[in-house]
Design goal:
Belongs to the azoreductase type 1 family. This protein has a single domain, classed as Rossmann fold (3-Layer(aba) Sandwich). 43% of the residues lie in helices and 20% in strands. The protein is built from seven helices and seven strands; from the N terminus they run βαβααβαβββααβα. The longest helix is centred in the middle third of the chain and has 19 residues. It starts with a strand and ends with a helix.
Length: 213
C-alpha cells in the first residue's frame, strides 16, 4: 500500500488558513482518486517535535562515541527517540505533501524543526567519498503547497526575497526525492479583493495535481 505523509505547519484551522484549505482539497481529491492509499496527517503544531538542542546534540554525540542508549539522560533519551521516530516515519512514506504559510519570507519554525528532524545521515542521505552527500529517497514524490500575502513565485520579489519554497526544493533535492511539484496560493494580502479568486484558482490546480500525484 502506498503511504502519503501529509505534513502541515499552521497553528490555525482550514477556515482561517489558505494553505490548509487548499491542502485539504488536495488530500480529498487524492483520496477519491486513490482510495486504497493511506494518508497520514502530521500536524506539526500538534505533535511532539523536538528541536535540535543541547540534549539532542549531547545524546547523539554519546551514541556516536560508543555509549549505550541507557547511558543517556532521560531528556536525551526522550528527544533522540522521538527524532528517530519522525525520520523513520518519513523514510517509510512513499509520497509527501508539505503545507505551510510564508512568515517573513520563510516558513514557520515548526516546519524548519521538522526539516532538521528528517535530514539525518544514514537515513535520508549518506556521505560518499569523492562525491559528497547523496540522497537516499530516490523514487519518492513530493508536493509543496504554500500560501503568502505577497506574490513570491515570480516577479521582482522572487529571486531576492523568497526563501521558503527555494529552501524546500534544495532539501528535497538533497534527500534525493525524484519528483517535486508546487502549488502557490499568493497575493491575497497585496490584492485582498482578489483573495477568493486566488484561492479558487489554487484549489483547481490542487485537484488537478492530486489526480496525477
Amino acid at each position: 500500500m502506498t503511504t502519503v505523509l501529509y505534513i502541515t505547519a499552521h497553528p490555525l484551522d482550514t477556515e482561517a488558513s489558505y494553505s490548509l484549505s487548499v491542502g485539504k482539497e488536495f488530500v480529498e481529491a487524492y483520496r477519491a482518486e486513490n482510495p486504497n492509499d493511506e494518508v497520514v496527517h502530521l500536524d506539526l503544531y500538534k505533535t511532539d517535535l523536538p528541536q535540535i538542542d543541547a540534549d539532542v546534540l549531547n545524546g547523539w554525540y554519546k551514541l556516536r562515541t560508543g555509549a549505550a542508549f541507557d547511558d543517556l539522560t532521560s531528556a536525551e533519551k526522550a528527544k533522540v527517540s522521538r527524532l528517530g521516530e519522525l525520520v523513520d516515519q518519513f523514510v517509510a512514506a512513499d509520497k509527501y505533501v508539505f503545507v505551510n504559510p510564508v512568515w517573513n519570507f520563510s516558513y514557520p519554525p515548526a516546519m524548519k524543526a521538522y526539516i532538521d528532524a528528517i535530514c539525518v545521515a544514514g537515513k535520508t542521505f549518506k556521505y560518499v567519498a569523492d562525491q559528497g552527500p547523496v540522497g537516499l529517497l530516490a523514487g519518492k514524490k513530493a508536493i509543496h503547497i504554500q500560501a503568502s500575502g505577497s506574490i513570491l513565485s515570480e516577479g521582482p520579489l522572487q529571486a531576492s526575497f523568497e526563501m521558503s519554497h527555494r529552501h524546500w526544493e534544495v532539501i528535497m533535492k538533497f534527500l534525493g526525492v525524484s519528483s517535486t511539484e508546487a502549488i502557490f496560493v499568493e497575493g491575497m494580502g497585496a490584492t485582498p479583493d482578489l483573495a477568493p479568486a486566488i484561492k479558487d484558482k489554487a484549489i483547481h490546480k490542487a485537484m488537478e495535481l492530486a489526480r496525477q500525484f
